[in-house]
Amino acid sequence: MNKKLLTIDEKKYPIAWRFNSKDCLLSSAEKSKIVFLDPEESDHLWNMTFPFEHIIKMDSSFFSVIEKINLNFEHPKESSLFFKKRLTDSSLVFFFWSKKASAIIPTDIFVKSWDDFFILVMKQVFFLLPIGIK
Question: Quick one: 96 exposed, middle or buried, by C-beta within 10 A (0-12, 13-18, 19+)?
Fold first, then answer.
């Protein structure tokens, strides 16, 4: 399967460089199922959802820590089990790299390739689970 068939527009979607890179393990078919939001769309979704401008400005009244794990980038299948367990009742994940960069990802694709979404150099990312998801 040629993973280079689908190239995502990096000017329209700032995070697309990650999914166009050679080390991205997603197939073209998987990439085509991801809805990338451009900066304006992402900003709008963020503002509809969050009462803060930046992840580091989120106060503790907005979230609760149910479980904390260290993601294992060397053995990603181990961490996939964590996401599989937590996302069993959800068909989509809303994933924010920042206020201006986000995507709506089918859960099965996210669980399989979570390490294509989390970027080691980015210390803060945020993914949103609907209320009621454990």
Answer: buried
pLDDT for 3-59, tens place per residue? 447 899 999 998 999 999 988 989 999 999 999 999 999 999 999 988 888 877 777
Label the pairing between strands 101-106 and 35-37.
Answer: antiparallel
Non-local CB neighbours of 133 within 8 Å, separated by 6+ positions: 86, 87, 89, 90
Q: Please say whether the beta carbons of 82 and 39 come within 8 A.
A: no
Calpha distance 95→127 (Å, rounded): 4
Matching residue, tokens 């937590």: 86
**Torsions phi, psi for 94 (to 5 deg):** -95, 115
Please choose, from the candidates 111, 112, 92, the residue with its C-alpha nearest in 3D space to the C-alpha of residue 102: 92
